[in-house]
Amino acid sequence: MSSTTLPLKRRAPIRPARVLLHVFLAGTALAWLAPLLWAVYSALRPYSETSTKGYVSWPDKLTFENFTNAFKQSDMLHYFGNTLIVAVPAVLLTLFLSSCVAFYVSRFDFRLNLALLLVFTAGNLLPQQVIITPLYRLYLLTNLPGITASGKLYDSALGLVLIHVAFQSGFCAFVLSNYMRSLPHELTEAALVDGASVWRLYWQITLPLCKPAMAALATLLSIWIYNDFFWALVLISTGENMPITSALNNLSGQYFTDPNLVAAGSLLTAIPTLIVYFALQRQFVSGLTLGSNKG
Amino acid sequence: MTTDTTTKTPGAAAAAPPGPTPEKKRATQGHRRLLTRRDRITLALMAGVPTILHVALVWVTAIASIFLAFTTWDGIGFDSIKWVGLDNFKQLFNDNPQFWPAVEHNVIWFVVLILIPTPFGLFLAVQLDKKIRFSRVYQTAFFLPVVISMACIGFVWQLVYNPDTGLINSIIGANKPGHYIDWIGDPHLNLWAVLIAASWRHTGYMMILYLAGLKSVDPSLREAAALDGAGEWQTFKHVIFPTLRPTNTVVLVVTIIEALRAFDLVFVFNKGAQGTELLSILVTNNIIGESSRIGYGSAIAVVLLVISLAVIIPYLIATFRKERRA
C-alpha cells in the first residue's frame, strides 16, 4: 500500500456503504426494540383510554399509574423478596462449590478428574424436564420439619436454592476449571513446597486470581436464576412463596383485568435484570462467551 | 445456561475451549506426597460435597426417570410401583395424540432457529465487527431480549399478538369481531407466532457468540486477504467463516439444546395447548396437570433424555479430547 492511503484512512471519509450500513442497523435495532417499546407505551396509558380509543392511537395522557397499581395490587415487593432469598444464596453457593470443584480438577492430577468434570458439564446441558418428575417426587418425600415452612423440600426456598446450585454448578465448574488451568502452576507449587495448606492455596492464592471469571459468572448466574420460571413453577405450590417471574404468571390470570396493567407488571419484573445488565454489561457478555471461547 | 431457554437458559454455553494451555498438568503430581492428611480431607470435601449435590439432584433423578418410565406409579407409596415393561412407550408412540406433534414441533423449533436467527445473528455480528460508531448501542438493542426472562418475553409478545388489543391486528385492521386473526389461539398460526418471539431472542444470543468468535480471528488473515484482492464476501466465505468453526460448533449445540429446552415462552402463551405442543410441555403437564401419571411422564422425559444425550455426548467427547491434547 502506498503511503498516501494512510492519512486518508485516518480522516475516515464518509462512504456511502457505511451510511447505508448505519441506516440498516438503526432501522433493525429500532424494529428489535419495537415489542418492548410497545409494551412501555401500553403500560403508560390508562385502560379507560385505550378501551375507547383503541391501542394504536395518540395518547391523551401518559401516566405511571399502571406501574404503581401493578406494584401495589400484586404485592410485588413481596415476590421480589422471594426471588432475593433464593437468588442470593444460590449464586453465592454455586460460585463457591463450583470453584472448589474447579480447583480440585484443575490443580491436582487425580485419575478421575476429567470424568468428574464431564459429569458436571453434561448435567448442565440436560433439559430440566428430563429430571423433573423424580425430582418433584423426591422433594415431596423429603421431610424437613422445622427447617422449611412447608416441612418439606417441596414448596420451599431451600429446595429452589438446591436445584439451582446443583444445576448451574455444571456450567460454572467447567468455565472456572478452564480459567484456573490457565493460571501459572508455579504460584501454587511454591506455596505448597513452603507448607501452605490446600485450603490456603485455594482461598488465598487461586480464588483472588479468578476474580474476573467469578464476576462474569456471578452476573450471568444472577440473571439466569432471577429469570427462572420452570423450577419455581413446578417446585413451588403456594402462590405466596413464588419468586417474581412465576408469581406474575399466576397473577396475570387472577387479578389483572387489563393488558396495560399486565404490561406494566411484566416490565417491572424485567427492571432488576436490566439494571444488572447495564451496570455489568462487560461481565455479562464475557461470561456468556467464557465457555465458548476462552482456553 | 439454563435461563435458556428456558430460562435458562439457560441456555448454557458450555463450550469448546480451543487454545493451548502452556502449563503441564503433570506438574502437580509430584507434589501429591506433600499433601498432609488434613489437606486430603479438605480436597475430598471440596470435590465431594458439590459432586454429591450435583449427582444426587441431576444424575440420580435422570436415572430414576429411566427406571420410572418402565413402571406405573401413583406417587403415593413405594409399594404401588409396578413394573410394566414397555407399556408406557407403546402407549406414547401409538395412542397419544399429542406426542408426534410435540416431536414435530421440537424439530421445527430447531430448524427455524438454525435457519433464521442464527445466520441473521452472524450477519449482524459481522456488520458490528467492522468497528463502526454506535456499535455498542446497536449491540445492546439486539441483545436486550436475551437479558429479559422468557416469561416476560411471553407477556410482551402477547401484547403484540392479542386478537383485539394487540399491535399487529390493530395495525392491519383485523381487530374487529369476525375479522380476528387469532395469532395465539389458531393452531395453524400459534407455533409460528411463538417462534417469531423465540427467534427475536435467539438472534441476539447468536450475535454475541459470533462477535466473540470474530474477535479472536487473527487480523493478519484479513490483511492477507485484502492484499490478495479479495472482496468482502470472498474474504468472509474463504477466510473468516472457516476460522469460526469452533464457534459454529458451539452455536449448533446451543441451538439444539435450546430447541429441546423450549418451554417458558409456550407455557406463558397458551400452556402448550392445540398447535404448540412440545415434549417439555407434555412432561410438565404430567406433574402440574390434573393427571399425575408418573411412569408415563417419565417415558416422555426419557425420549427427551435420549435425544439430548445424542447431542451432548459427541459434543463433550470432542471438547474434552481437544482439552486433553492441549
- How many individual β-strands of chain A? 0
Mean pLDDT across residues of chain B? 85
Named CATH topology of the domain at 85-259 in chain A: MetI-like fold
Number of helices of chain B: 14
**Any idea what the CATH superfamily of the domain at 101-324 in chain B is called?**
MetI-like
Oligomer: heterodimer
CATH topology of the domain at 101-324 in chain B: MetI-like fold
Give the topology string of chain A: H per helix, E per strand: HHHHHHHHHHHHHHH
Helix content of chain B: 55-70%
Question: Would you spell out the secondary-structure blueprint of this structure?
Answer:
The complex is a heterodimer of chains A (295) and B (326).
Chain A: H1 5-11, H2 16-43, H3 47-53, H4 65-73, H5 76-107, H6 113-125, H7 129-141, H8 157-181, H9 185-193, H10 198-209, H11 211-227, H12 230-235, H13 244-254, H14 259-279, H15 281-293
Chain B: H1 37-68, E1 71-72, E2 82-83, H2 87-95, H3 99-115, H4 117-128, H5 135-147, H6 150-161, H7 167-172, H8 190-215, H9 219-227, H10 232-243, H11 245-261, H12 264-270, H13 279-288, H14 294-325
Antiparallel strand pairs in B: 1-2
Helix pairs in contact in B: 1-14, 3-8, 3-11, 4-8, 5-8, 6-12, 8-11, 11-14, 13-14
Protein name (chain A): ABC transporter permease subunit
Domain ABC transmembrane type-1 (chain A): 80-280
Organism (chain A): Streptomyces broussonetiae
Describe this structure in words.
The complex is a heterodimer of chains A (295) and B (326). With 295 residues, chain A is mainly α. Chain A has a domain at 85-259: MetI-like fold. Chain A is 76% helix and 0% strand. Chain A has helices at residues 5-11, 16-43, 47-53, 65-73, 76-107, 113-125, 129-141, 157-181, 185-193, 198-209, 211-227, 230-235, 244-254, 259-279, 281-293. In chain A, α2 (16-43) packs across α14 (259-279) and α5 (76-107) packs antiparallel against α6 (113-125). The longest helix of chain A is centred in the N-terminal third of the chain and has 32 residues, at 76-107. Residues 1-9 of chain A have low confidence and may be disordered. With 326 residues, chain B is mainly α. Chain B has a domain at 101-324: MetI-like fold (Orthogonal Bundle). Helices cover 66% and strands 1% of the residues of chain B. In chain B, strands 1-2 form a two-stranded antiparallel ribbon. The longest helix of chain B is centred in the N-terminal third of the chain and has 32 residues, at 37-68. Chains A and B meet through α2, α5, α6, α7 and α8 of A and α1, α4, α5, α6 and α7 of B. Chain B: InterPro entries: MetI-like, MetI-like_sf, UgpAE/MalFG_permease. Chain B: It is found in: Cell membrane. Chain B: One of its GO terms (cellular component) is plasma membrane.
